[in-house]
Amino acid sequence: MNEHRHTQRTVAAVEAFNAGDIDGYLSSYAPDAVIHGLPEHLEATVSGHREFLLSMRESLPDFRADVHAFVAEGDSLAARLTYTGTHRGMLHGVRPTGKVLRWDAMTFRRFDEEGLTVERWILGDNLSLLRQLGLL
After folding, report:
1. Cβ-Cβ contacts under 8 Å for 116 (sequence gap 6 or more)
2. Model confidence, pTM
3. Which domains, and CATH codes, for the chain?
4. Per-residue pLDDT tens for 66-106?
5. How far apart are the C-alpha atoms of 45 and 30, rounded to whole Å?
6. How does DSSP assign the chain, residue by residue?
7. pLDDT of 2-46, one tens digit each?
């Protein structure tokens, strides 16, 4: 039964994210959650994740996630997704191109007993993103 709850909670969080509601999205995390996979200059915290998401929204104002599949078991959930956004601001030192950028990712979440994410791993196809930006 927890698996269904974790999937529902994650779907609601992604819907908030896609609507531009960063606070609503981040409310799916426990205050002391650890987020692995953020850029090295950011802390692996909810605050660091907020900073990352706000900077991505500056670069890609229509930044969104589309989830293609979930696998949930016990207190964990894995998701396969695609990120997209129109390049309208500086990103990785590259001036806006107006291109719609698209890259795949996988994410893994671990939940506490209240259904909040306490740990997350983000694995994105950054090579694809860098190629689209002309950096490779």
Report:
1. 9, 28, 29, 30, 33
2. 0.91
3. 2-132 (3.10.450.50)
4. 999 999 999 999 999 999 999 999 999 999 999 999 999 99
5. 10
6. -HHHHHHHHHHHHHHHHHTT-HHHHHTTEEEEEEEETS-TTS-SSHHHHHHHHHHHHHH-TT-EEEEEEEEEETTEEEEEEEEEEE--S-BTTBPP--PEEEEEEEEEEEE-TTS-EEEEEEEE-HHHHHHHTT--
7. 778 888 999 999 999 999 999 999 999 999 999 999 999 999 999
Q: Which of 34, 1, 15 is nearest to 108 (CA)?
A: 34
Could you count the other beta carbons within 10 Å of the beta carbon of residue 62? 12
User: CA–CA separation, 32 vs 120, rounded Å?
Assistant: 12
Identity at 15, one-letter amino acid code: E
